[in-house]
């Protein structure tokens, strides 16, 4: 719409605008009078109609979804070596030992690497636990039908394990959708982010046979006792 064109409002919208316009003109006159004459017992009545709802445009988030290729690249960029242990000593430091920008950057980079490694391990635990929950649920359902167990699944979990049903549901959903895609166990992203991406990830894995095969590859998750030490961190000098 150019400067010479007038926006076309509906009759109802136009009436609301004119009503508020008149109110603000009356309010200006009223306030000028109060300034000159002092306090008053009357006050202009504000319109009941919602002007903001009429004249404000709705905000749009404008979030653009990644393509399958972009999502795949994002996940691969966040691959982490899960065969190495997480070194807690990285996070035990004294602020006075960090005296230069290079030391600060080195410490932050090393710490972030360990955070991503922790994320990958946590994702592995969460999905595997979700798969365990799904397996137990099948057995629970059989026992419920037989009358061996009489309470609900949610109550049984809460009373015996201390897990809230909604939390268990998220783990089970994630395991059902992503449980067979073992390559995810190398991704150093948080479980929360992976859960939010669940539908996009399923679409990615189903986008082509090659993509499906890639993400179903076993990343060789090794037992804890076979993990390698991650003692490659820089030791900051004590001044």
UniProtKB/TrEMBL annotation:
It comes from Mytilus coruscus (Sea mussel). This is Uncharacterized protein.
């Amino acid at each position: 719409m150019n400067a010479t064109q007038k926006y076309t409002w509906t009759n109802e919208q136009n009436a609301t605008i004119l009503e508020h316009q008149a109110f603000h003109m009356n309010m200006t006159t009223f306030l000028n009078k109060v300034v000159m004459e002092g306090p008053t017992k009357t006050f202009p009545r504000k319109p009941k109609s919602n002007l903001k709802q009429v004249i404000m445009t709705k905000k749009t988030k404008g979030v653009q979804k990644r393509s399958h290729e972009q999502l795949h690249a994002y996940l691969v960029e966040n691959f982490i070596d899960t065969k190495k242990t997480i070194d807690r000593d990285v996070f035990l430091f004294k602020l006075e030992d960090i005296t230069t920008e290079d030391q600060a950057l080195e410490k932050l980079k090393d710490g972030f690497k360990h955070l991503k490694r922790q994320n990958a391990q946590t994702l592995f635990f969460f999905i595997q636990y979700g798969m365990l929950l799904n397996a137990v649920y099948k057995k629970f359902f059989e026992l419920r039908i037989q009358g061996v167990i009489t309470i609900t699944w949610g109550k049984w979990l809460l009373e015996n394990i201390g897990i809230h049903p909604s939390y268990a549901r998220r783990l089970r959903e994630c395991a059902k959708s992503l449980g067979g895609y073992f390559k995810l166990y190398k991704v150093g992203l948080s479980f929360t982010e992976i859960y939010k991406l669940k539908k996009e990830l399923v679409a990615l894995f189903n986008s082509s046979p090659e993509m499906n095969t890639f993400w179903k590859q076993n990343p060789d998750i090794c037992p804890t006792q076979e993990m390698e030490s991650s003692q490659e961190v820089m030791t900051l000098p004590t001044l």
